[in-house]
């Protein structure tokens, strides 16, 4: 731990010193490579420190980003952070691809009822409670209290929908980090992934309703764009899957790097046509695992060396994006929303568990996989923040604040649950991958 | 009116999207081809450099896509971090080959040979390129000395691409040739460091106002600091994946910091790499293997980005390329002639030595583009120097191939 602290100190000192080169924080180019290197080292070292404190490494990554980000130390400027959008897109794509590779629908079929019941009931319970909370909150906030009941109900519907989102990357990250495997791990991943698909689709509907209630010129185009976004992303994912199958069959070398390159292309092209790398990666992973003879495990093993840097950067960026200042302003509402959500999820899973006659242990542990929030929820909250004036900025900040709470506490609680499930360290060690067939000769 | 605008914009956007997707599809197809075992086998059997075998299509594709406007400026901007990182990674690998313990095992009589192979091509190239640049009306204050020095640095660097075909595997001659290439690559980087410092342009928009000598210290200090940091990071790591992560991070930080301070990225990374390899590492070979595993794809991506800013159309560049090729090649040939009788007894004969050290190292392209990055946009005359190095590399490879093909026949003729 001492070495991690010393290394972290040195890296912070170097980055701080280098940044004094420019007259203003934003005067020179944002130094994306510097930001990536710094975030990666800071995240890995913070992960080690968190590990020694018996916290998940992911919490260390997020904390490193939060502390070094624009709101606290300012070592990563807001501009640098914006420039990391592509890296974030690639990371989300890879995390989703690996999640898809884990989801064998045939193996999941006997548990599909459990996944649907747990996920569905928990989402409905959390959604209803959040709807009620936000209906009340809109009657208190100065910017919304003058609105009519229909308008306030619409806002509450949008908010409940956003805060129902889970975080497949965090769930997969924690499960991977713990080396967990088993029925509960499968359940956590399946619920998180499938629920997020539902959330993306339902958000397109609630968003459409909100645009009818709060009309703007481009409403029709926006709905069309959302549909294109969902189906286009799935289509792009299937194309990625087909290319990967072809590559593995014809070339079969450097598969991990090829996967990375394909996801870079999806993220790059996606930024032009608004494709969602999460949906694309997920579709590709599901296709590989369930349709092709290659199987997801092969792709997951080939991509294994990229997983650690990708996770470290992605979660550090997520941490750096936390708007701590805004959170402080809306902290009571945000904490109330997070608590309400947790109550809904715990109550919902308890209800679903009784209906399924599930074991008590499963019933108690399942909701922990639903607590973390990050990517999708952040994206949707930002959409609310920027799309609906004048109430969007205020309500969006409350949503972001609540996501911050879930983002910080969710991974820690999930890690505890994974340890208690008895499924930790059950996975095969993929780090000892065979590299003999990839022997390479030096260029230089 | 608004509707008309939207209708007009939509096909344009979809058209540019189709072109972008096609461009990326071409890159993916090329990458697949470059990694294909048959292509790799062909590359090895022919003894051509990676640049000619796999790199050239990437370079040409980059140039083609940028010239046709297929790649949007935003896409190029997105590739910029990969380019900076590529410069650093290649520099780091070159530094990692600079293991003092290996050099100390070489015979001392190899020292004058190494010196000849570094100095003679450099001198000839410097004189020839200076004459041509002056003839092309490049003035002293307009980048003459900078470009001459850069071409001189590029002339030194050689690649032992055809070693397997020229010499028996594991022969001491091969070991000597590899050692020579290690030193001449380091010489090229050292000269790049000097150019980067001597022709530094701060434009008065930075807080650090330092004399040139201080920038030299900053370069050395930064390299040393990142070397020590890389050592600290890789110390006692048992997991290969974490080792990959920390190496990526260390190189990214070194490259990013050097790029931010407008110092030569490959130089700083090479110093860090050289320091790291000479410190007591637990598993240096595993570290080296990780670096090599990622080296080729990064190099190809680097060439793709390089291609986007390459303008081969100017005739002056072609004249300079021809001069560079002849001067450098003749310099290597002369060095091989002079080396006979000076070096160790098992040094290969002059023709083999000259032929083995003739191909241009990929470092030459790294050197010239690192200088372009530091000096701003590639305009003349530095654009001509870029042409000279790229075309010189292609030309040298083709000439070496032609001569090499005649060699087995000669050997057969000699055989009883």
Biggest interface and residues each: A-B, 62 and 69 residues
- Mean pLDDT level of chain B: 78
Calculate Rg of chain A over CA atoms. 22 Å
Sketch the major β-sheet of chain A.
none
Oligomer: heterodimer
Helix amount of chain B? over 70%
Encode the helix/strand succession of chain A as letters: HHHHHHHHHHHHHHHHHHH
Shape of chain A: globular
Which structural class should the secondary elements of chain A be placed in? mainly alpha
Number of helices of chain A: 19
Question: Distance between termini of chain B?
Answer: 87 Å
Give the overall pLDDT of chain A as a whole number. 79
Number of strands of chain B: 0
Q: What is the approximate shape of chain B?
A: globular
> Beta-sheet strand percentage of chain B?
under 5%
Explain this structure.
The complex is a heterodimer of chains A (444) and B (416). With 444 residues, chain A is an all-alpha fold. In chain A, 76% of the residues lie in helices and 0% in strands. Chain A is built from 19 helices and no strands. Chain A has helices spanning 2-19, 32-52, 57-68, 78-83, 85-102, 105-108, 112-140, 149-163, 168-178, 183-213, 219-250, 255-273, 277-290, 296-320, 324-329, 331-356, 360-365, 375-387, 391-421. Chain A is globular, with a radius of gyration of 22 Å. Chain B is mainly α and 416 residues long. Chain B is built from 17 helices and no strands. In chain B, helix 3 (50-67) runs parallel beside helix 13 (284-308), helix 4 crosses helix 11 (240-260) and helix 11 crosses helix 12 (265-278). Chain B is globular. The model of chain B is unreliable at 1-11 and 409-416 (pLDDT under 50). Classes of the chains: A mainly alpha (444), B mainly alpha (416).
List the helices and strands and how they pair.
The complex is a heterodimer of chains A (444) and B (416).
Chain A: H1 2-19, H2 32-52, H3 57-68, H4 78-83, H5 85-102, H6 105-108, H7 112-140, H8 149-163, H9 168-178, H10 183-213, H11 219-250, H12 255-273, H13 277-290, H14 296-320, H15 324-329, H16 331-356, H17 360-365, H18 375-387, H19 391-421
Helix pairs in contact in A: 1-2, 2-3, 2-14, 3-14, 3-19, 5-9, 5-12, 5-13, 5-14, 7-8, 7-10, 7-16, 8-10, 8-18, 8-19, 9-10, 9-19, 10-11, 11-12, 11-13, 12-14, 16-19, 18-19
Chain B: H1 2-35, H2 37-46, H3 50-67, H4 73-96, H5 100-104, H6 110-135, H7 144-156, H8 163-166, H9 172-198, H10 212-234, H11 240-260, H12 265-278, H13 284-308, H14 315-339, H15 350-356, H16 362-375, H17 382-414
Helix pairs in contact in B: 1-3, 3-13, 4-11, 4-12, 4-13, 6-7, 6-9, 6-14, 7-9, 7-16, 7-17, 9-10, 9-16, 10-11, 10-12, 11-12, 11-13, 14-15, 14-17, 16-17
